[in-house]
Specification:
The complex is a heterodimer of chains A (249) and B (229). With 249 residues, chain A is mainly α. Chain A has a domain of 132 residues. Chain A has eight helices and no strands. The chains are: A mainly alpha (249), B mainly alpha (229). Chains A and B meet through helix 5 and helix 6 of A and helix 8, helix 9 and helix 10 of B.
Chain lengths: 249, 229
């Protein structure tokens, strides 16, 4: 019950603005720390790969971005569903603030994948299944962002783009498997085989640390974007006036 | 219970008949997607080569992509004119469940575009040196695939119908969702040319049809309620 009350309070724009403001510096510091540890372990401590040499190290950026691209889509669709079902304004803000961040992670995964593909597969771009479904994921993100930008009224825009995000989330597995049966060249997943991961701990540890760092980074950027959205959305309410006055004095 | 069922059925048939009748009265709108389909397909030999082996190699993709684009360009007719004259708002306000009305409109749209595209596809296929004994598979994939295109497309139109310039945006929203259908449809046609078994692709196309048939009308109904608010 107390937890429920906390979320209820957190979901009010004013409380969200206050609490998230005090969270951001801590989360940002955590991101920086984790990124530094992860990059150090990944770039200096982890041994070179016996086949791919040093060039595999781009994995410590590539794999977490690819994970995040899907994770952010799930968060976006989940938040959109919460916003549509329980009519919570903040959930819509979270969903729509996630879209550009998720699109950026997807773009990063594509670029790093392409850079990694050149020495490994001998081509900047191959129509490999997982690269292709990542590209389609980028299209899905762009669709949500374009629809959100097309409406003048914010409420309609949020709800329409939210419906599209949910339709997209149903399609993500279908697209993934259809593309996989269509063509594949990608190396198989090496981390999710839990019984015996085919990746050594000295490489797995920095990878997981980077994944956590990327997640916290996402939360920081999400909160920053959402705060701005909330401020813009609530510009007619008293507490925003008070806040702006306080800021300028 | 029976009464509810009957009234939903009546709503479906009424909407279906009305939309088919409207489409038949606007002959040019009925023919435009078909003409588009014919023109796009005939551009390929002009731009590519008249060599029959080359044409046969690209024929499955050309036929499927052209059918997909023709369907996409015709999607606006599902809701656009009803939105402009205000009758869409009346339909949303009516007592009947909105997804039944949506299903009626989508069914009418498919009968006046997807079905006709499927019917003329063999003639176009032959112009691309397509072997006649495989025309059946082409027709089957289009019969199973184009209703899914109409169903998924209705979500996109419902989301963009309130916008003045929704055309390019609609393509951006809908084309990524069309990819699985394109993959299974075109690969079935492609494999049938090499005399391979294509039952798997046909089953998957049917599965996608069933899935979109059960889910898309609800998404479209929700989208209409949002954009008409």
């Amino acid at each position: 019950m107390r937890l429920f009350r906390f979320f209820h309070r957190f979901a009010s724009p004013r409380e969200f603005f206050r609490i998230s403001g005090s969270m951001i510096p801590w989360l940002a510091a955590t991101t920086l720390l984790l990124l530094l540890i992860g990059l150090y372990l990944g770039l200096f401590v982890a041994p070179p790969d016996y086949q791919q040499g040093e060039s595999y190290r781009i994995m410590f950026i590539h794999v977490p971005s690819a994970w995040m691209s899907l994770f952010v889509y799930m968060v976006m669709a989940g938040a959109a569903a919460i916003g549509l079902i329980w009519r919570i304004k903040l959930a819509h803000v979270i969903a729509m603030s996630s879209a550009p961040i998720g699109a950026s992670f997807t773009f990063l995964a594509l670029v790093t994948g392409s850079l990694w593909g050149k020495p490994m597969w001998g081509a900047w771009w191959v129509w490999d299944a997982r690269l292709t479904s990542e590209l389609i994921l980028l299209f899905l993100y762009l669709g949500v962002m374009a629809l959100y930008a097309a409406f003048e009224e914010r409420r309609t825009a949020q709800r329409a783009a939210g419906i599209l995000a949910i339709v997209g989330v149903i399609n993500v597995p279908i697209i993934h498997y259809s593309v996989m049966w269509w063509n594949t060249l990608h190396q198989g997943p090496t981390v999710t085989k839990f019984d015996a991961p085919s990746i050594h701990l000295s490489m797995l540890a920095p990878l997981l640390i980077m994944a956590v760092a990327f997640t916290v980074f996402y939360v920081v950027v999400l909160l920053m974007r959402a705060r701005w959205e909330v401020l813009d959305q609530e510009q007619r309410s008293n507490w925003v006036d008070d806040y702006l006055e306080q800021l300028s004095s | 219970m029976d009464g509810v069922h009957n009234s939903a059925m009546t709503a479906f048939t009424t909407i279906f008949r009305r939309d088919v009748k409207l489409a038949l009265r606007h002959r040019s709108e009925l023919i435009n997607p078909l003409a588009f389909f014919v023109i796009v397909v005939s551009l390929f030999p002009l731009g590519l080569s008249t060599d029959s082996r080359t044409l046969l190699q690209v024929a499955p993709a050309v036929l499927w992509i052209s059918a997909l684009l023709a369907t996409m360009l015709s999607l606006e007719s599902i809701f656009r004119s009803d939105y402009e004259d205000g009758s869409l708002e009346q339909l949303v306000l009516s007592d009947h469940p909105l997804f039944v009305i949506v299903l009626g409109k989508v069914a009418a749209h498919w009968c006046t575009t997807g079905l006709l595209l499927t019917l003329i596809s063999p003639a176009l296929a032959i112009s691309l040196a397509f072997p006649t004994q495989n025309l059946g598979i082409l027709v089957w994939t289009l019969l199973l695939g184009t209703p899914t295109l109409s169903l998924i497309g209705s979500i996109g139109v419902a989301l963009t119908v309130g916008l003045r310039r929704g055309g390019i945006l609609l393509a951006l929203l809908i084309l990524p969702l069309y990819i699985p259908i394109l993959i299974f449809g075109a690969s079935a046609v492609d494999m049938s040319i090499d005399d391979l078994d294509v039952a798997g692709q046909l089953y998957l196309l049917a599965a996608l049809l069933v899935l979109s048939f059960t889910l898309a009308p609800f998404a479209t109904a929700a989208a209409l309620r949002v954009t008409l608010e």
